[in-house]
TrEMBL record:
Protein name as annotated: Alpha amylase, catalytic domain protein
Chain residue ranges for the region called Disordered: 392-435
PANTHER family assigned to the protein according to its UniProt record, in alphabetical order: ALPHA-AMYLASE FAMILY MEMBER (PTHR10357), NEUTRAL AND BASIC AMINO ACID TRANSPORT PROTEIN RBAT (PTHR10357:SF179)
SMART domains: Aamy
InterPro entries: GH, GH13_cat_dom, O16G_dom_2
Pfam hit, one: Alpha-amylase
Biased composition (Basic residues): 408-422
Glycosyl hydrolase family 13 catalytic domain ranges (all copies): 52-412
GO biological process entries: oligosaccharide catabolic process
MF terms in GO: alpha-amylase activity
Similarity annotation: Belongs to the glycosyl hydrolase 13 family.
Length: 435
């Protein structure tokens, strides 16, 4: 993915795409009014080009069919020649690979298939030597069910401190609420079939994604300390920033109330002549499982930690929220640095539509002194080089992200598919990412 935060590039893009008869784009004071309250006005990430690398498919140095850290090291000159300012490394942690590495079983190590921590340290050093910073994925909404904490939780039983690190609930009437998983089906997994113990009858745990990805309980202090330690650990190894996965999903609504749209929230039926993405875009919110006010307290905590251990450490939010104004709340001075601009990613290659998204983005992000970002593609959508070349009538919008959960489910790597491309219907590919 190229995440473009360059104002000069934006200006060139807007000027190139709008019709000649349009008046020149002007930047109002609202685009900059929030800068006065910020101390990061000269931070490197404000005008950086960031290039996503999916380690599993980028480059294979040892010939085993799986990309690795050494393969990336062998292409540092290539990355430097591209002129990128930073690379974003998708998850390289130990993982069962149920969800392309976003099911993490150890947050402080490297999957042996990719190499060693020493090799990762060498890669970070190599990249820094050519002026390229390193951003890594942070996955705080859920872990793998193979994480030592979750295994301990199943072993410890109901009411234990170990289970309090995740969201376990007792319900004698079926699932504790009607939430659906973004990967399909209910968001609650019965515990008794996993443990075989009668004491776990009518107990469930929450998973907003795969059943193998249990959600953390962010009301638990152990969870907070775990991720504070994570931030310190990786910054001390030379990491320059973090892309926060599902940044809008950590805190759930108090009491876990039913979703007024039920389990089919992520499969909204479109009206005749309307595509599903457009139908979902009209939803007034993202439900009780996402975008709760409490997430902002977490990011203020993280910003405080990062200010103690480093300078200008990037935090970028993957926050699928209804509007640019909602996203701007994540990038206030004491929280995140940037948020992925998904409205820009989803905009058609049309001058008027792009101009509207750009204008709104500059205004909303500028109000809090944050830069807008210009996201062209990532691992959840069709690559922009392909997407923008397709005929308009082809079904390529928005790719296979949260707006298209059926395709995302079809694209999930399963047993036997870990080393092979996974397709999600015509012209839709999730893995691998070509370099």
């Amino acid at each position: 993915m190229s995440l473009l935060s360059s104002f000069l590039l934006l200006s060139h893009l807007a000027a190139t795409l709008r019709p000649d008869q349009d008046p020149p784009m002007t930047l109002t004071s609202s685009c900059f009014q929030g800068l006065a309250s910020r101390t990061d006005t000269d931070a490197w990430w404000r005008d950086a080009v960031i290039y996503q690398i999916y380690p599993r498919s980028f480059a294979d140095a040892n010939g085993d069919g799986i990309g690795d850290i050494q393969g990336i090291r062998e292409h540092v000159d290539y990355l430097a020649a591209l002129g990128v300012d930073a690379v974003w490394l998708s998850p390289f942690y130990p993982s069962p690979q149920v969800d392309a590495g976003y099911d993490v079983s150890d947050y402080f190590s490297l999957d042996p298939e990719y190499g060693t921590l020493a090799e990762l340290d060498a890669l970070i050093s190599d990249l820094h030597d050519v002026g390229i910073r390193v951003v890594i994925d942070l996955v705080p909404n859920h872990s793998s069910d193979q994480h030592e904490w979750f295994r301990a939780a199943l072993e410890a039983g109901p009411g234990s401190p170990e289970r309090d690190r995740y969201i376990f609930r007792h319900s004698a009437d079926g699932a504790p609420n009607n939430w659906g998983s973004l990967f399909g089906g209910p968001a609650w997994q019965p515990v008794e079939p996993l443990t075989g113990r009668s004491q776990d009858q009518d107990w469930y745990y929450l998973h907003l994604f795969a059943a193998e990805q249990p959600d953390f309980n962010w009301s638990n202090e152990d969870v907070h300390e775990h991720f504070r330690t994570f931030l310190r650990f990786w910054v001390e190894r030379g990491i320059d920033g973090f892309r926060v996965d599902v940044a809008h999903g950590l805190v759930k609504a108090e009491g876990l109330p039913d979703d007024d749209l039920g389990p089919d929230r992520w499969n909204v039926v479109a009206a005749e002549g309307e595509d599903a993405a457009a139908a979902r875009d009209k939803l007034p919110d993202v439900g009780p499982a996402f975008n709760q006010p409490g997430v902002h307290d977490i990011y203020r905590e993280w910003r405080s930690v990062l200010n103690e251990v480093g300078t200008d450490i990037l935090l970028v939010a993957e926050a699928w929220v209804p509007t640019e104004a909602d996203a701007a709340l994540y990038v206030r001075a004491d929280e995140m640095s940037q948020a992925f601009n998904f409205p820009f990613l989803g905009a058609g290659w049309d001058a008027a539509e792009l101009r509207r998204v750009i204008d709104v983005s500059l205004s909303e992000y500028g109000a809090v002194g944050a830069p807008a970002t210009w996201v062209l593609s990532n691992h959840d959508v069709v690559r922009h080089a392909s997407r923008l070349a397709y005929p308009a009538e082809m079904d390529t919008d928005p790719g296979i992200g949260p707006k298209d959960p059926p395709a995302r489910r079809r694209a999930r790597p399963g047993p036997g598919s870990r080393r092979h491309p996974v397709h999600a219907g015509p012209a839709r590919q999730r893995l691998p990412l070509p370099r």
